[in-house]
Amino acid sequence: MDNFAHGITSTGHTNATGGKGFGLECDKFNPEAIRLQFNSWFGKACEIAEKILYDLRQTIEELVTDIFYKILQQKAHAKGCLFSAESTAPTMLSDGIAHYRYTDIPMGEFWLQSPTHDKPNDVADAVSGAHIYGKNIVQAEAFTQLRNAFTEYPAMLKTLQDRNYAQGINRLVFQTIK
């Protein structure tokens, strides 16, 4: 076992791949040696990769917030306008709440008869962002529907509207998609 701990196989067989990869072979019949090789090589690469991916995702999120949303707010203010925006999450890597720091009017969205287009946290993120960053108005793109297939009258929309008001939305924006 002492030999195993130092990476020496029972046979001492070595391998050279194209003259560059010279070293002892893993004992392909020893489960402990196989686990050690995997954990010391591929397992370590995966750990490094996860840390790198986390840092990369965090950097993208910060850039989306601190550059994209911040610049849009500055440009809108320079023109005397308020800036309203929805979250880019989950369609783009982003914190679903942090960017609302740079919106004057946080905005979510909810769809009518199109549950596959709803983003489950969209309204909650807009409402939470409004509370966190002290915004009094929080709006939602409301009753969005594909192909302008509206066949509803206002009473049919009341339950969905009330649900979103109860979640914290206090202004509706109507949107249609052709």
Overview features:
43% helix, two-stranded antiparallel sheet, disordered N terminus, 4-stranded parallel sheet, alpha/beta, 178 residues, 2 domains, 5 helices, elongated
Short description:
With 178 residues, the protein is α/β, with parallel strands linked by helices.
Q: What number is the mean pLDDT?
A: 85
Alpha plus pi helix count: 5
Helicity range: 40-55%
- Number-wise, the strands total 6
Question: What is the element string, with H for helices and E for strands?
Answer: HEEHHEEHEHE
Report on the biggest sheet.
4 strands, parallel
Total domain units: 2
Strand order of the largest sheet: 3-4-5-6
What Rg is obtained from the alpha carbons, in whole angstroms? 27 Å
Written description of the protein model:
The protein starts with a helix and ends with a strand. By secondary structure, it is an alpha/beta fold. It has a four-stranded parallel beta sheet with strand order 3-4-5-6, with helices on one face. β5, α5 (154-167) and β6 (171-174) form a beta-alpha-beta unit. The chain has helices at residues 2-5, 31-40, 42-78, 122-132, 154-167, and strands at 14-17, 21-24, 84-86, 105-111, 139-144, 171-174. The protein has two domains: 2-40, no CATH class; 64-174, no CATH class. It is elongated, with a radius of gyration of 27 Å. It contains five helices and six strands; from the N terminus they run αββααββαβαβ.
